[in-house]
Write a structure and sequence with these properties.
The complex is a heterotrimer of chains A (330), B (61) and C (232). With 330 residues, chain A is mainly α. Chain A has 15 helices and no strands. Chain B is mainly alpha-helical. Chain B has one domain. Chain B is rod-shaped and about 50 Å long. The N and C termini of chain B lie far apart (84 Å). Chain C has twelve helices and no strands. Chain C is globular and about 50 Å long. The N and C termini of chain C lie far apart (36 Å). Chains in contact: A-B, A-C, B-C. Chains B and C meet through α1 of B and α1, α3 and α5 of C.
Amino acid sequence: MTGGRGDPGLLDRMVGNSLGWLDGARPFFRLPPNVTTDADPNLTLKPLGELAELTQVIASLHPCAGIRETAGGLFAFAWGETRDGELFAELVRGEPFATYPVEIYGAFARAGRRNAAVEELLSTTARLRGWRVARDDHTRTLGVLNAERRIGLPQHADFDAVLGHTVLGRLPEPWALDRRAAYGVTHDVFHLTDWGRTPRRLTPDLAGYLRLWLPSWLESWLEEQLWDLAGELLAVSACLPDAPYDSAAWQRLAGAQAADGSVPETGTAPCPDDPAEAFTACYHSTLVTAFAGTLARIAAGPSAEGSGAAATDRRAPSAHPLRCESEAIP
Amino acid sequence: MVTDRTAPTETTILAAEVEGLLDSAEPHGVFRDTRECGAGLLLLALLLISPPTPRPKTDER
Amino acid sequence: MAEQAQGAVPLSAVIADAATGVALALRGEGDPYAVSRILRQGDAASLAALRVLGADALAPYALDHRVCPGGDDEMVVRQALTAYPPGTDASEVSVWSYRGLVEASHSYLSGGAEPWPQPPQAAAGWVTADPWPKLAHRVSQLAALALPGLAPGLADDLATRTDDLARGFVRAVRRRDWLQAAGVGRWLSRLPKVPQTLGLDAGLAFVRQMSDGEPRVAVHVAAAHRFYGRGW
């Protein structure tokens, strides 16, 4: 792993191709009429929530205008699918004690897409003592806390105290991480840094721990060909101060990306006889690739010339104009 | 042990075996995770969100 | 697998038996250790096993120097050194391992009438050149050199890559390559400034448990504990 500036051409191609595939997959992100009742949320709300969360990061941070535009279009599409947020009011009325509508709504609220009826509802449900009952999954609690912060709801618990109970917060033996714990670590970092926007929230202890062990985790899960986890680990690397750029790891992830821009969850791309199945098998890794490529791209940006590339909050590209190779290409 | 092992041919064979054992290739990685991790959707459910089940039915509303 | 003489025990089994004896001795269990008791003079497979174990065949002597100069112990080591020298096309690991056995003879079996051969030159460019996964694998193959006083130059060089070796330990455990993990862990036990978050002591114990008594893993873990106080 080197601390070099990365390979903007490769990263931009990967992000652009991923977004191209995702843009073409809009029909599969569309919510079915029974989304608030019988539909499997793992196949409906979860993909749409991820689409919103990650395209919003890309749309606000990526230096290439074309990429920002595509990502912004997808984000607007996702908001449209929620019927400008009305969906969340229905979800909260149906499942008032569930946190996931709040978590997904938070991704939109952060970008200023808000719905008064939803917030009226949440002002009651998120204040219940029941809401404050600790979840058994501390990483998810961080996600809820981040959503509360975004929406402007009171924090139901102390973020740092909860972080101390997560996988990352406990700094486990790095060889003792299984797959589930590794996903825990990546998401602890994403919630803590608001999906890479505020990397300075990583304390020196946490950053040092991650810098030391990320290479071995990356190597391990690249060998296992778990591309989504490898992508998430690359995204975490990009959140570190003076973010290291692992050129070989990026090349391996690039090798997993199909010609159409999709990145399979594991192994090699499935034969898409059934387009819906291909979507399920690829949408997450493809989104993660676009997200990780964006963070790696800005981590290698102009401020990398000075010290502490990732030490400050990431701003909109207008504040840090970067040259964008792909924009020179018609 | 009754076999005479000092025959030159045996030593030659063993010498090759010694070299092979000293500089042995790395075994293939064995990756096993707890079955809790599961595959497919269970795994996906760990990621951004994992909505609770069961969910309200239309007629309960 | 090489052709075996009829009725002969496979080399791997001879190695495993001898390693079990070494591990017991390092843990202070079993009869007083004598390399000539577990590996016979004049027996080609025994000598080959001694060559493969390298300095580890003499590791218990690093604990107490109760060796009779010129005795059977010295003889069997001399025979192994003569029978299986690294050839011209030998791997660097083979040369280093041979060198380790010679160094251990100098250190732990001194005082005989005849001098021991000089240790062969062994290249160390790989210590800086290898990417960390390759480095960790190679270092694990040379785990027998992680003994008091042996290969001081190599130890100094490896100390510049402690973090990389620690990453190799993590990778080896993830891959369930217990022998590699134990070998790298043993070297880490000898090196200063091992990252505290690695959890080396717990890691060595974990590897020993997970390997289910594999004799060479047991040797590495016992050596790390006995000589460097690491592991449980």
